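Priority: medium. Attachment 1 of 2:
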């Protein structure tokens, strides 16, 4: 009986293969890719894209494609969804690898075995392939059999001893951002896809990793809802929830930065690293677009992005409305690290990444593109608000609870708010 069942399954596969061959259908990924190129108009009159080689990689297969002269790799990369959708089109006949059925346990009886076969077929039919496309002289298409995980809980295992902070997990490894090598970061994304949660992850990680060396100015232009759990930490020296307060805090940081740079020059040092100064001050602005029409604030932000590296100032500029107006080119040019969650349009993606892609991300909370030199799709770790509170609790200044420390700081400002008295620990 088992031989008959096995023979039936095998013959069904052969019949399906023969049918597809006879009727011109693509019977494997390589053939599908070549067919997609033809249908998408990515070939030229006298030459077609040709698969140069393929190899197994972890979780899938890599296809190296030689492009015809005159075909733009950029156009293909920006439209990679065309390839991904084509590979996920389900034909009338089921394509399978006979090796998938070697895991079936026949010893338990016919009914359980058939149920296992049904499950295999169902999973193969519903499984969605994902791809990654790059170009280095030839087009490299990596086809993954399984989607990137959409559930990545935060844990202490992600903590380091320096300024390298976890940003997410790619298909091959954990991905970290080093704030010593790339001091600033842009964080963008539409509402509800993980931008604010990611900022909490960064603050929590930095406090845990460098509690005595890190300090913050937190500017929360969404009414204070995003950063209120951090407000009374001893590491927070500045806090603002409105545009006027934000401008005051930015002015204070600019004065501090200028003072540090003068001292570095006087002592013959290029930057705080060479001077052996361990302190780093992070200016984190959530919903920075609300300051985009304030010329004075934007001039200071541009100055921080330009000179902050040497003075130990680190700028994290976050917005859910990225445009060429809310993300000026001078700011973008000075910021190498970028984390971009799902965005609605190609234009918004270009404002952050200088290219499209964020608009094609699946609508999964925490899914993002991390850009240093090249783009990497990642799943960012999710840290719950309860876990944030547990992690930062040892650093809360109990005497400052209720906002007394910040009320006192604001009361020290003159009535015209032009000459604030700033008290700093030196």
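Attachment 2 of 2:
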């Amino acid at each position: 009986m088992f031989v008959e069942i096995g023979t039936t399954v095998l013959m069904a596969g052969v019949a399906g293969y023969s049918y597809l061959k006879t009727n011109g259908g693509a019977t494997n990924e390589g053939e599908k890719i070549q067919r997609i190129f033809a249908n998408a108009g990515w070939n030229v009159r006298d030459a077609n894209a040709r698969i140069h080689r393929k190899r197994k990689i972890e979780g899938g297969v890599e296809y190296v494609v030689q492009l015809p002269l005159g075909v733009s790799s950029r156009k293909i990369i920006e439209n990679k969804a065309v390839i991904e959708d084509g590979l996920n089109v389900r034909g009338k006949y089921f394509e399978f690898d006979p090796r998938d059925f070697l895991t079936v346990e026949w010893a338990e009886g016919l009914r359980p075995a058939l149920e296992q076969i049904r499950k295999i077929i169902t999973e193969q039919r519903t499984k969605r392939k994902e791809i990654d496309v790059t170009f280095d002289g030839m087009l490299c298409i990596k086809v993954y059999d399984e989607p990137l995980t959409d559930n990545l809980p935060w844990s202490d295992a992600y903590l380091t001893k320096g300024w390298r902070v976890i940003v997410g997990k790619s298909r091959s490894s954990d991905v970290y951002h080093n704030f010593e090598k790339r001091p600033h970061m842009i964080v963008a994304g539409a509402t509800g896809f993980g931008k604010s949660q990611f900022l909490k992850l960064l603050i929590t990680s930095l406090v845990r990793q460098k509690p005595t060396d890190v300090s913050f100015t937190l500017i929360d232009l969404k009414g204070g809802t995003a950063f209120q759990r951090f407000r009374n930490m001893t590491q927070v020296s500045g806090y603002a929830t409105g545009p006027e307060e934000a401008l005051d805090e930015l002015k204070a940081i600019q004065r501090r930065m200028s003072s540090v740079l003068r001292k570095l020059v006087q002592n013959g040092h290029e930057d705080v690293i060479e001077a052996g100064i361990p302190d780093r001050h992070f200016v984190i602005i959530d919903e920075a677009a609300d300051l985009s029409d304030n010329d004075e604030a934007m001039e200071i932000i541009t100055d921080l992005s330009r000179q902050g590296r040497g003075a130990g100032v680190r700028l994290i500029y976050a917005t859910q409305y990225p445009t060429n107006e809310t993300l000026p080119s001078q700011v973008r040019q000075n910021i190498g690290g970028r984390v971009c969650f799902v965005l609605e349009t190609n234009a918004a993606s270009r404002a952050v990444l200088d290219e499209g892609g964020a608009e094609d991300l699946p609508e999964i909370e925490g899914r993002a593109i991390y850009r240093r030199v090249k783009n990497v799709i990642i799943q960012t770790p999710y840290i719950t608000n309860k876990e944030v509170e547990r992690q930062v609790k040892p650093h809360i200044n109990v005497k400052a609870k209720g906002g007394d420390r910040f009320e006192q700081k604001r009361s020290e400002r003159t009535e015209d708010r032009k000459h604030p008295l700033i008290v700093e620990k030196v």
